[in-house]
Model the fold of this input.
Amino acid sequence: MQIELTKENVKLIGRTLKIEDVLWCALSGTGAAFTFTGKKLMVTILGGSQATLENNEGNYARIAFYVNGRRVLEDMVTTAEKTYTICDNEEEKRMDVQIIKLSESAMSVIGIRDLEIADTESVEPLSEKARKIEFIGDSITCGYGVDCEDPLVPFTTATEDVTRAFAYKTAKALDADYSMFSASGYGIISGYTADPDVKSPEQLIPLYYHSLGFSYDTFLDGKNTTKIDWNFADYQPDTVVINLGTNDDSYCQDTVEKQKEYAVAYTRFLKDVRSKNPEAKIVCVLGIMGARLYPLVEKAVAEYTKETGDGNVCTLELPEQDIRYGYASDYHPIERAHDVAAAVLTRALQ
Done:
């Protein structure tokens, strides 16, 4: 028997899109969660476009399957279609199951085909949590390179795991549902640049915030994630956490005019976020990979509050990663640094 991955049958995690019998996932942490009652549960995972599968240079989508909170299986999606047996028990059991995309949207997407169970078995959505959080960020939120504790080893999606990053850890600590909107290298006015004289204006979170995220990959029918609008009514968070500025700093550095541009654009983005999340507390954080632009975040929030009268926005400086912990790929934070930041953010949100 086939069970459709709709909100009536499963809890949809993050920004997803159902096309016929496939639930498409692009952004970090997207997927589905449900309670399965039965013996055997199978699911088929689809890769993205054939061009991406053939020419992805190792940056395939990374996925994980959880049963009762324990990761029982993970894989890299290197083929167009593969069926996984999540459980196969001799006796009927009731268990909570999660399917999570661990890697980010830019390099690759996945599809989850309808669940396969016996006619006598059942699936029901996990209960909604009392608290909902949206995280908006960059590679830090994605868990970039967290599984590679050598800063000199280049990044691949095989070392990316959103569940080991501060945002996911914060949501788990608060027993909250989450939605991630994050992309490595992205910022407010510039993505990461190796040359501060050269802006990277294409890699901006505000350009794609209204969509299913940025990806070089496409769904099987050719749909590109950036061309698909997200229905914000489907997920209204209690809290929005914005962690953007690390990549902008590679461009702004200590140049006053560039920093002013960043603050103005940040204020503008806050207005956009507020328009889509009218009741949410907005918390603007920065600092895990450096806090040079944090005073500009404070300035942007102060200007936003002055212009709008909206007092439901605040700032929080997160602790910078400690050199004593070591570094992950490309000098990104290892899990210990994420744990420290998550603890600070969790206390603040409590």
